Amino acid sequence: MDMNSLLKKASSMLEKARRPLFFFDGDPDGTTSFVMLYKKYGHEGKGHIVKNTPRVEADHLKHVKEFGPDLIVILDKPLVEDEFLEGVKGIKVLWVDHHPVQDSRHTLYINPRLFDPDDNRPTAYWAYLLANDHNMLWLAMTGITGDWHYIPELADEFRKKFPKLLPKKIRKQPDALYGSGIGLLARMLSFTLKGSGKDAMTSVKILTRIEDPYEVLEQTTPQGRFLSKKFEKINKVYEDHLKQIKVTRNPIIFYKYEDNKMPITRDLCNELVYKHPKKVVFIARVTTTGVQGSISSTKIVLPPIVERLVAKYPEATGGGHDLAVGVHTREIDFSSFLKEFEREIKKELKKK
Ligand SMILES: [Mn+2]
């Protein structure tokens, strides 16, 4: 089946559903995908945000039992446990994603990589096509921009509608994320989705009642004001950290802070490496269970280095994408881990 036929089939599944139950990723891509489909098809349906795990798990079956859906929709989750799929046999499952292709038995699986391994346009793009409603373009653009993608034809269409939110000179990522109104909206949404699942669901519910990006950006409605306020609170903490981070001649920008609640190391890392593309950025957060770190670079491939290092320390884990990884170590091991990491990076730089 080609993509168009898959989308057609999925639309008709969504149209027929009376009680769809959505499981969606807790980032802007997964969340806007949910909001678009919920607005269009889901009024008697329900959404469940899946945070802090890449998987829809057997544990999520309790939500299925509780709600009794006639369709399950999985959005932007890279993995679904077999046990979950076994447990929902008899209920139709639609799974829309753009991460590496999985065995998707028992589901209608929509993933652009099925047709082109290099096509990883975000879930929000496919959800937008499924919703088929131009009034939701701003939601799609928020999700896509938040997921570090730029889809020229969609961006051009958006620019016509909201010229102030995407200036003409911005033609790629991550300029869009850090230099435009729609990028700001994506970052705002990302921050309002932090915290507990319950807290994040409050933001999601409010987002389903917003019709226009200016409601949030210029706080023109109570709903918009709520999200904007929630963002400001987290953003203040974020900006305070940003101000304290020193950029020196060292090829590594390193910053460590103590905090148990707010995971913003990835956000800090992304912004710093965008502003200082020649540096490797390492942001570490000390928690009661160890040190959680995010590392970014624009040219050094990080997983081989990080995997070699974590193998040397008990309980250490790490991995991710070529240019962006996460690591976790025990607190007592961290300073030695960092020293070794610096040494490895300097060695790599010498080779270049
Ligand atoms: Mn995504």
What CATH calls the topology of the largest domain is: inorganic pyrophosphatase (n-terminal core)
Oligomer: single chain
**Chemical compounds bound to the protein:** manganese (II) ion
Using the alpha-carbon principal axes, give the shape.
Answer: globular
Widest sheet: strand ordering: 2-1-4-6-7
Low-confidence stretches: none
Overall pLDDT = 96
Distance between the termini: 45 Å
Q: Which range best describes the helical content: under 10%, 10-25%, 25-40%, 40-55%, 55-70% or over 70%?
A: 40-55%
Q: How many separate domains?
A: 2
> How much of the residues is beta strand, in percent?
15-25%
Helix-strand topology string: HEHEEHEEHEEHHHHHHHHEHEEHEEH
Tally of extended strands? 12
As a whole number of angstroms, the C-alpha radius of gyration is 21 Å
**Largest beta-sheet details:** 5 strands, parallel
Kindly summarize this structure in a few lines.
47% of the residues lie in helices and 17% in strands. It is of the alpha/beta class and 352 residues long.
Q: How does this model look, in words?
A:
By secondary structure, the chain is an alpha/beta fold. It folds into 2 domains: 3-231, Alpha-Beta Complex (inorganic pyrophosphatase (n-terminal core)); 245-351, Diaminopimelate Epimerase, Chain A, domain 1. It has 15 helices and 12 strands. Strands 2-1-4-6-7 form a 5-stranded parallel β-sheet, sandwiched between helices. It has a 5-stranded mixed β-sheet with strand order 8-9-10-12-11, sandwiched between helices. Strands 3-5 form a two-stranded parallel sheet. A hairpin with a 2-residue loop joins β9 (280-287) and β10 (290-296). The radius of gyration is 21 Å and the shape is globular. The relative contact order is 0.08. The model has no long low-confidence stretch (mean pLDDT 96).
